[in-house]
Amino acid sequence: MFESYNIPRRSGLISITYLLISSTVWVVQAGNRQEYQYSDDAIENKLICAGKLADYAACQCDPSAGEYSCINAQFVDANVFLDIATNYKYIKSVTFHGNNFQDLTSTPLFGADSQTSLIKLNLSANYIVNLNSNALRNMPNLQVLDISNNEIVFRPRDVDFLKHTPHLTQLYMRRAFTVTINRTQQFELMLEMFRQAKLEYLQVLDLSYNFIHNVPFEIACPFPSLHTLDLRQNFLKNFIVNETCIKEVNTINLSRNQFYVIPKDFRALADKAQPETFLLRNQFYCDCNSKEFITWLRSTKSVREKNSLVCDRASPKMYVGARIAEVPLNKLTCDEPLFTSMSSFKFNFYSMIIAFIVSKMMF
């Protein structure tokens, strides 16, 4: 028997002893592995929240790091924030994503005590409609605020919503407001909210996926420290803003808008910006009428990744997909109809549907 297992000949007693010791070591090791697994479970148990939030598996609390989150917990009452302030003293980061608040509280979210350690607040995808001017009160050191993927309607009485967070450095409002009525008034109120806030330290402003057709002329002026303005996936055909307010901005993302050509007034503005400021991945048209903007695009230093831009439609069609930096200008014609009123309607309609679906998938 021993020869078949390549075990040297030795007395039966010694062999049996050897097997018993080996089995014992294996059992001890297995026990250790089981104990280690139990240790992992214990760590997970430490994330269980105190108070009312303990009843929700979607909520996790890490008081040592000051991080608290409730994701897809389906809360409808924004007073749940008070439960965090009641049970924990150190609050650094709070994420409530995928709930159904609709209205933020008319009083401070975390109550009367000042939350001086709170740096990040994520309120995305909560179907928020009304902001309420006092909701962010007592958060003097907040740096990152995400109110993306909501249904915000700006109201005159709430224009000081951001006034209580003077140290914001990042503000994310991606698909934050989708109301299609009174758009002009809504943007005026949003700009007034920015002015009232006096966010001197804001560096990143994300307004992507908001169905914006025209950007307010003073959009960047309330933010002297701004370096990134994200306007991706809107309906912009031009970008005309106060040029003195974007001199220090080094990234303006205008990708996936409706820049079929690059208008002359935008070109003049872009030439006064910093090198490689603009991202312009759009569905450009290349025909005999495009030579002026193509010539400018090849020479300008303000467009980042300009050598990657291609002709989405072209005349002749053989240049569809060709790099704009390489398409021969002397061979462009106007024989192929690139754009008609009906195709414009269809494109806008389908773009709106696609943008809506994509924004939903992102959250």
From TrEMBL:
Where is the signal peptide, in residue numbers? none
Please list the residue ranges annotated as the LRRCT domain. Answer: 282-335
Q: Which PROSITE patterns does this one have?
A: LRR
Q: Which UniProt keywords apply?
A: Leucine-rich repeat, Repeat, Signal
CC per GO annotation: membrane
The record's listing under Pfam families reads:
LRR_8 (PF13855)
Protein name as annotated: LRRCT domain-containing protein
Point out the gene that encodes the protein: lron-3
